[in-house]
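Query structure, 566 tokens:
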């Protein structure tokens, strides 16, 4: 192995500036990913046949990214067109990072997966097209800076590597109070996404001017995240914003170089899902001012002003390219609280915290403001042609017909699952739930916060089996649960939360907001194998500790930091 003593260069351009049609750039593929998903390198010249001799590296250089201490760019030249296998070496151990796929002599490769505040060695091995001929490895060192922000204490508990789904865990630590950074030069970002490895160490991050909630990586490798309930951002894995959808109540910078597409709806909140037809499903909101002669929720008639502002959620489907609202279904119209005030009771969900959505976006709403539905998840059930919506404050999951079909028009309320639902349900009732998703067998998986359970409350991940082959289930029943615990005791996450099915059959559970006395614990991520008498076996746990308080809205397991061409 050759170590080329090349000094660390600090780039003045973001990594994306090195990737263009004219530049010789290295598109990349994860070392463990199938070739069909591989990003590719741009050849410096026309493709050639396999070299008769092993390729030789002529020069190797690394540039730190001035905007992100965990990103860098590697520049490598080879004497003949070659591929590169790149690893990060630390403490004598090599971690495969990426393998370029297309033959090239000039390689520009983004480096992701560095650790902060240490010296690491980047190794490049030149290979022929089929990998049969390996050249001599060359290395270059990089010294990374400390993370530029403060994080809560991240501690890995249980860890069974062979049983875990491979990849990195992506989540959004959100602070709920000002935190004094240990270094006065650090500036705490309002919005933050991080990815950690199996040992709980940060290997990637992204910052944003506003808090980030739901985030995911799309099939084409684009990162999509929702910010402050009014904006959807599309970015690459190097943090470069590609485009943004902004709703009417969005407040922030506009008019920069990033395409900003206006969406004619009040909000884009809690969850966004890209549908198979390329459209975006999300949740908006609306305020309904109701004037009544007598108070409906027990207010003192002598002081009651006669006005309610009832906030409802609106299911929206949006064209991503134009921002056009293709369909919008207000739960006010579907559920009609005034026509059925007993079953659709809004009095028990009065919520007037001006700092929390949706009340926060309607500061001028008159009278008594009531956060009636507070939906928090939307997903398409393709087999049933239904948009499923988790309605937290009604303790229900609603199914709304997505497209016109033989049974009726789009936008029709098909069924309701919950305590007062239209589908007969057997099992412990979920309350104030989050994160509905559809499993391969058609059953549902949700995170049950259990806010209305008697003490001691215990949040849980759970699945619900839907019986019947038609669009409307005949019955539903609880089929699996895994209770939240801390040090063996039942634990309660009163807000947020997630239950994500993983490719290997495990479930990643986000106990997102512990408010009780759990040894300074703010939140907890748990990967569980769903079997056994206790609902499953924990194979990985990440504890999000102090200082705080912090919460985690959702978490995802991503298989690679190189999901698409760079």
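Result returned for the query:
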């Amino acid at each position: 192995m050759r170590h080329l003593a090349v000094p660390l260069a600090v780039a003045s351009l973001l990594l994306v500036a090195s990737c263009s049609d004219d530049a010789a750039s290295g598109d990349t593929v994860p070392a463990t990913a199938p070739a069909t998903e591989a990003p590719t390198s741009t050849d410096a010249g026309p493709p050639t046949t396999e070299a008769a001799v092993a390729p030789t590296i002529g020069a190797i250089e690394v540039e730190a990214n001035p905007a992100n201490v965990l990103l860098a760019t590697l520049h490598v030249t080879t004497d003949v067109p070659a591929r590169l296998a790149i690893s990060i070496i630390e403490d004598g151990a090599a971690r495969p990072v990426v393998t370029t796929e297309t033959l090239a002599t000039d390689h520009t490769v983004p480096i992701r997966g560095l650790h902060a505040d240490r010296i690491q060695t980047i190794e490049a091995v030149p290979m022929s097209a089929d990998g049969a001929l390996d050249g001599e490895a060359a290395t270059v060192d990089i010294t990374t800076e400390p993370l530029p922000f403060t994080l809560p204490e991240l501690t890995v508990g249980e860890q069974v590597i062979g049983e875990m789904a491979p990849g990195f865990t992506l989540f959004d630590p959100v602070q709920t109070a000002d935190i004094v950074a240990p270094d006065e030069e650090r500036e705490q970002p309002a919005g933050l996404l991080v990815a950690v490895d199996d040992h709980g160490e940060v290997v990637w991050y992204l910052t944003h001017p506003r808090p980030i909630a739901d985030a995911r990586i799309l099939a084409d490798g684009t990162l999509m995240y929702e910010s402050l309930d009014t904006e959807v951002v599309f970015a690459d894995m190097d943090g470069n914003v590609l485009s943004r959808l902004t709703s009417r109540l969005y407040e922030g910078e506009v008019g920069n170089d990033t395409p900003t597409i206006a969406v004619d709806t009040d909000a884009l909140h809690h969850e966004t899902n890209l549908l198979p037809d390329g459209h975006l499903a999300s949740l908006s909101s609306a305020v309904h001012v109701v004037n009544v002669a007598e108070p409906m929720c027990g207010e003192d008639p002598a002081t009651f002003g006669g006005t309610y502002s009832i906030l409802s959620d609106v299911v929206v489907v949006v064209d991503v390219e134009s921002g056009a609202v293709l369909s919008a279904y207000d739960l006010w119209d579907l559920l009609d609280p005034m026509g059925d005030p007993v079953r659709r009771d809004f009095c028990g969900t009065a919520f007037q915290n001006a700092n929390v959505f949706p009340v926060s976006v309607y500061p001028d709403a008159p009278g008594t403001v009531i956060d009636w539905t507070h939906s928090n998840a939307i997903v398409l059930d393709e087999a049933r042609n239904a948009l499923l919506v988790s309605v937290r404050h009604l303790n229900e999951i609603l199914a709304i017909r997505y497209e016109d079909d033989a049974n009726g028009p789009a936008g029709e309320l098909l069924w309701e699952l919950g305590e007062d639902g239209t589908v007969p349900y057997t099992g412990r009732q979920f309350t104030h739930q989050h994160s509905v998703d559809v499993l391969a067998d058609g059953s549902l998986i949700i995170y049950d916060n259990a806010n209305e359970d008697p003490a001691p409350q215990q949040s849980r991940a759970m699945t619900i089996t839907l019986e019947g082959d038609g669009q409307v289930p005949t019955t539903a029943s609880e089929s699996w649960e895994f209770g939240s615990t801390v040090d063996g005791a039942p634990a309660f996450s009163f807000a947020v939360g997630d239950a994500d099915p993983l490719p290997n059959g495990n479930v990643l559970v986000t106990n997102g907001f512990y408010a009780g006395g759990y040894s300074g614990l703010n939140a907890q991520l748990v990967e569980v194998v769903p079997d056994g008498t206790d609902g499953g076996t924990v194979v990985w746990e990440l504890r999000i500790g102090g200082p705080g308080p912090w919460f985690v809205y959702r978490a995802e397991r991503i298989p690679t930091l190189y999901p698409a061409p760079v």
